[in-house]
Write a structure and sequence with these properties.
The chain is of the alpha+beta class and 118 residues long. 44% of the residues lie in helices and 23% in strands. It has a three-stranded antiparallel sheet, covered by helices on one side. Strands 1-2 form a two-stranded antiparallel sheet. The two termini are 20 Å apart. The relative contact order is 0.10.
Length: 118
């Protein structure tokens, strides 16, 4: 099993770093993943889930909540046709345009981050 702690303290110290280790819980009689992710601002996210995918889903939900608290207003200039298409897609998903664009960008960043980890 890969150890992600030393003396009970996470060894996930670099911003953007993720580490995980697999262990068997004899009480639950199943394999679990211990997962740590260090946010670029230094805050540590840690969880225990049955799979690495579930751990990353939990991390992504945490990131979205964390980002909601850190939102800043900004403005973009967009081509009219692109804006129309984005508005249409947002409406189909019953989302605000702002929420839709933010979600698309978060998914894009997550894909790039996960691809970089492979």
């Amino acid at each position: 099993m890969k150890t992600i702690t030393k003396n009970g303290i996470s060894t996930t110290t670099e911003p953007g770093q993720e580490q995980y280790g697999e262990w068997y819980n004899p009480i639950l009689k199943k394999k679990l993943i211990q997962y740590d992710y260090r946010h670029p601002d230094g805050v540590l996210f840690s969880c225990v889930k049955p799979t690495i995918e579930k751990c990353r889903e939990a991390r992504d939900k945490w990131l979205i909540k964390k980002n909601d608290r850190m939102k800043k207003q900004t403005a973009f200039r967009l081509n009219e046709e692109l804006l129309r298409q984005l508005s249409e897609l947002a409406q189909k998903e019953n989302r605000s345009l702002n929420n839709y664009i933010e979600t698309v960008l978060l998914h894009h960043i997550k894909e790039k981050y996960d691809a970089k980890k492979r």
